[in-house]
Backbone:
């Protein structure tokens, strides 16, 4: 069975890929260039795809900078030590997961893939609306009503296996499956290719996850 | 009030733009390059945007050829004289309107636009699942659950003013609003910049629409 796996190069999507493979899926990995501040993330995605083995890895160019308005795509500073602040953070990228899922959906239909796996998480997520179960359910309905494969077969099905797990549970599951987390990258604002900032939301959630899991954190912080 | 208007350069979207302007919207037009067989469509979109006046016109590059699998994006012949055939036609592009709406959504959020207007039509549509009211309703739910503006204000709202109109009714409405249909382009397989094929689904529906409306068809057919 063919599955599209959204692969950012982070800890979560590396775990999702391992889960999909452990369930016998033929995995087609999909990453996006979207005006990331650093190409570090895409290099991590390529490392993870290579290490785990995928049928193909498509890097899709998407110019979200056109739309500005996020610390991850525009010239706005990434907040530090701000996990737990109220509301939706400035690192929110307008409609990001909607756009990613829409492209993944076109890719799935063209390749005959019956599943789209992605690593959204609603527990340790830092306030993004497009990481919640009701968003995933709504997008599934878009697939069923708006596509050939959806209207004819109810597919592709969205699989979000991490959505109710804590970061620590995700890491423990990945370690069981042999995921090499030293290949992954989470930092929103890396100092250089080898050093994570250690203070953005993503670094803080990652650090806490390794602590919670009781697993050594391979990340090199600045 | 700012509105994003999806502008393909065809008859329907030109009418939608005129409707949005007639209701006092400040219109931001959005077109896509998506491996169209011909650039004719984009030139028509630019003409329509100019003639009607928009606050800006963004042409967003989107490489749907990566996904193949449609007569509009891959090297497959466009069917002729096939309107009314059973099922979803080969000109169906996987997830096209889902992808267009997803990008429009990011654009709307970044610009603070509270509406997204598009010219989908479920009467004379030629079998595309992503032109039906239940698809539009499902995508509205994606906006409400998955975006900052949707979860906070229930916006942007999708406006599909043509969805229940016949092609003839659309044309009559457009003529009342002063739309110059000679600027628009509908053909899936134009012979050259000035000549529509006259036999693809899109040409046939357009011809019938002008006949139904009792309006002179300005299109030059080969």
Residues:
């Amino acid at each position: 069975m063919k599955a599209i796996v959204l692969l950012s190069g982070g800890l979560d999507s590396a775990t999702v890929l391992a889960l999909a493979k452990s369930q016998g899926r033929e995995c087609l990995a999909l990453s996006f260039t979207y005006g990331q501040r650093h190409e570090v993330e895409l290099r991590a995605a390529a490392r993870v795809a290579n290490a785990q083995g995928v049928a193909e890895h498509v890097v899709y160019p998407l110019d979200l900078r056109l739309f500005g308005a996020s610390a991850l795509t525009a010239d706005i500073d990434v907040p530090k030590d701000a996990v737990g602040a109220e509301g939706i953070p400035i690192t929110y990228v307008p409609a990001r997961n909607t756009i990613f899922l829409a492209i993944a959906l076109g890719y799935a239909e063209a390749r005959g893939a019956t599943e789209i796996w992605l690593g959204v998480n609603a527990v340790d997520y830092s306030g993004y609306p497009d990481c919640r179960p009701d968003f995933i359910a709504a997008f599934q309905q878009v697939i069923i009503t708006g596509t050939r494969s959806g209207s004819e077969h109810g597919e592709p099905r969205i699989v979000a296996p991490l959505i109710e797990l804590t970061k620590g549970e995700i890491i423990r599951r990945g370690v069981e499956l042999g995921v090499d987390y030293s290949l992954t990258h989470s930092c929103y604002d890396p100092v250089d290719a080898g050093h994570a900032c250690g203070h953005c939301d993503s670094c803080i959630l990652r650090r806490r996850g390794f602590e919670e899991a009781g697993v050594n954190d391979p990340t090199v912080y600045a």
